[in-house]
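cron nightly-structures :: item 1 of 1
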Amino acid sequence: MRPAAMNTRLRDEADDCLKARGQCTLGLLEKALHDDLRAFIKREGGGAKPDALPSLLRRYKCGSWFETYR
C-alpha cells in the first residue's frame, strides 16, 4: 500500500473515532441536562403530577429531547 493511501485511511479512521466520541459526549450531556431539569421541576413544582405540568413539558416525557430539535 502506498504511504499516501495509508495516511488517508488512517485519517478517515481517526475522523470516525472522533465522530463516535462526539456522539457519546452529546448523549451524556443530554442525560445530565434532562436529569437537572427533572430535579428542578420536582423541586420548584412541589412534586406536581405529570398531568399538572404545562403541555410544553409533557411532550418531552417520552423519547430523546434531541429528536425534538433535529
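cron nightly-structures :: done
The mean pLDDT is 76.
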